[in-house]
Amino acid sequence: MADINNISLNTATTKLKWSLSQAIDGCARHEIAGISPWRDQIQEMGLHAAAKHIRDAGLRVSGVCRGGMFTLPHGHDRQAMLDDNKRAVDEAAELNADCLVLVVGGIPDGGATLADAHTQVSDAIAELLPYARSANVPLAIEPLHPMYAADRACVNSIAHANDLCDELDDGLGIAVDVYHLWWDHNLKAEIARAGKERILAFHICDWLKVTSDMLLDRGMMGDGVIDIPLVRSWVEEQGFDGLYEVEIFSQDNWWQRDPDDVLSIIKQRVAEAV
Amino acid sequence: MADINNISLNTATTKLKWSLSQAIDGCARHEIAGISPWRDQIQEMGLHAAAKHIRDAGLRVSGVCRGGMFTLPHGHDRQAMLDDNKRAVDEAAELNADCLVLVVGGIPDGGATLADAHTQVSDAIAELLPYARSANVPLAIEPLHPMYAADRACVNSIAHANDLCDELDDGLGIAVDVYHLWWDHNLKAEIARAGKERILAFHICDWLKVTSDMLLDRGMMGDGVIDIPLVRSWVEEQGFDGLYEVEIFSQDNWWQRDPDDVLSIIKQRVAEAV
Fold first, then answer.
1. Cα–Cα dist B15/B23, whole Å
2. For the residues A119-132, what does the mean pLDDT come to?
3. Residues of chain B under the 50 pLDDT cut
4. In this complex, which of B146, B186, B209 lies closest to A146 when CB atoms are compared?
5. What residues contact B22, with CB distance under 8 A and at least 6 apart?
6. Main-chain phi, psi angles of A147, to 5 degrees
7. Does A179 contact B at CB distance below 8 Å?
8. How confident is the prediction for chain A on average, in pLDDT?
9. Which residues, in sequence order, are CB contacts of A79 under 8 Å at separation 6+?
10. Which helix (H) or strand (E) holds A8?
């Protein structure tokens, strides 16, 4: 079974009710080993204060969410996008994060095609990588579910992420999120292809059979259809020894609850359903 | 450019306002070459009457929607499901359809996993195939978008459909629907892998960048982000010479319009954006 000492809280799970500071304290209170903060919350708290608070609480940072958004309409300021990604690398370095998660961006407005977007993603990662390598921050491409291909991320399978890693090489890996990838009949083989070196993060939640909203209706582990223990076993067979990062976007359910209750339930569900 | 003499109307596009009989007349009136009826409409009209009316109108039947739904909870009557699929084969034969489209079913209730569902699908198709072969009705697996993996169809990539074709052999092919498959970075290669023999249908509509509903908010060709001419070129490079079947689920937009207007716009958009 999954080890409840290996949990990380992605702060999206509690962001409606808790600031980053509160989330850090909550993790310490519930003996949750790690945290994965979002950049807006880091900026709100201040980078140095956040780093100190996380360090003092003894938390591992399983990732920083997020860099990316590489795809831009024609004429848009590309340099500003790259500069912002470099700042994200700096923040991940200061927080000693396991990786900077990349959500690569969708199809830009103005008639761009999927192929155009793919080229922009590949080019931008190639430009960002030397900076990330020199900062010792691994970049984790997060393949998003194909339902986000148009508006959020045009890398939608672990096969595609693996292809990009083949192409762009060292310092680049993958965030394996069961919500985005569970349906893929080649998932086991592609996790093996990624191997220990590339698997930089493991994100969990559940896919509800009746999903009312494409973005904000993720389920708690055990409430949906994903065979999470199976996917975890595939990741761990490769030698992954990072944390299980719990990331639940749930406007009408989990975000409305007392985050202390949510954290208690997360621990219980990791023991039972992960 | 696409040939407007190669259009087929999937009757889901007009089903809110038109019966099957009205849709047949509408196709004839707009010089649309083919039709793809849904089984509930066939039953409502009567199979023999539908076959005669379609024949008299000179329409090609690009497919019958749909067989499948092979995945069942434990203890559910499997024979009834298989019998119903055989009736669907009979209907497709009577209508001289190019294929019977299969929507394979999602994850059954009661704790089944994706792997369980995949096994049920493979087993059921293997049982149905001899019957379909003897009726000369090709079976077309329609890989659905991964967002339907839980509730409608657990075959969610053309790669998976190709694997099933490899496994189960003659008489089995694929319905290539741009809405379900457009995001796949391996789509060109998998269409080539399928080849002329397996590409039994080509379904078109568009993916709206802002999609308000996971099922009922498909776009008209040209209103979304899919590079339809590119996918069409890949299919036609393989020698596909069937019709472009227009299937638009659109509760709040296209279903509310006068179907005669919808058919006029379809012809225009096939000329401009397909």
1. 8
2. 98
3. none
4. B146
5. B14, B259
6. -70, -10
7. no
8. 98
9. none
10. strand A7-10
